Amino acid sequence: MSALALSVLLALVSAVAYAAGAIVQERVASTTPARPYAPLRHGVWWAAVALNGLGALLHVGALAYGPLSLVQPLGALTIVFALPMAAVFVRRRAGAAARRGAIMASAGLAGLLSLTGTADAQSLGGGERTALALVTSCAVAVLFVVAQRVHRAVVRSILLSTAAGAAFGIASVFTKTVAVDWSASGGLGGLTGQLPSLLTVAGLAAAGMMLSQAAYRGAGLAAPLATVTVANPVVAAAVGITLFGEHFRYGVTGTALALGCGVVAAGGLILLTTERLTAHTERQPRPAGVTTRVPVSPAVAPAPALVPVSAALRARVRPSRPPSRTQTVTPPALR
């Protein structure tokens, strides 16, 4: 098996693990709304952490054998895998829009896969790593602060999941850098100088995990997961192309085709998000005290309901009439 094929295989299995972890995270978020970021006492949440950890390890292996601009777009298959997995494990069947979205996302990613070219293994310098870490931290912090001021659950979820996707994407960039430096050093001895990068990876991964967990609160599975899976590869691939010298085949034509494939994949993810978000909204219970107006035909309208109202109005008007008039009238027989 070639290095590129092994990288694709590891990335696909990683996407399956991430999809399973996302489903578990959404279920935990729906049962523990009071603990949005880290429900440490919830045993099932640690299963989600383990699944995400497995996905991360497989993702690292994929980055070690393949280019960043190839591995990261394959991570968008997480939402495609989560669709049938959610239908099986949590009984959420996909509609026609979701099936079209899955086909579009798969076709777009297949196009990106065929157009992605390889590049020589490169790393980032110390100054570039520091600047990238600072910019990412500031961006994630701003998104987090803005999300805390938003009251609508879906908008807050999109902001938090965007921050999570950016954190995961830059964590992948640092992971790729550490992997390249480790291969160049030829052993574990080279990891000593990579301690700041490893700490950055750990911090970004932990932040992404907690932000994504909070994003599932009150917003269902589709919207947060689709946002993370789009933001993650976009951020990482942009860094890979601009800083690592990765490219697409066939020059300008290949780049234009790759952008078109990216648009197709993004359209598929939007369809997936719309379909799943609509289904989730329909299942939400109506808050107490909120009534819904239902148009009723006049033929079946309960007319007797008007009688108590008119009777009450007459009862309120009747005391204003002088009662003495009925008592002072002389009967005709006594005149």
From TrEMBL:
Coiled coil: none
Keywords: Membrane, Signal, Transmembrane, Transmembrane helix
Listed Low complexity bias regions: 323-335
Transmembrane feature ranges: 70-90, 102-119, 131-147, 154-174, 194-211, 223-244, 250-273
Highest taxon above the source species: Bacteria
Region entry Disordered, spans: 316-335
Signal peptide: 1-19
PANTHER family (UniProt xref): CONSERVED INTEGRAL MEMBRANE ALANINE VALINE AND LEUCINE RICH PROTEIN-RELATED
This protein's name: DMT family transporter
Organism: Streptomyces flavidovirens
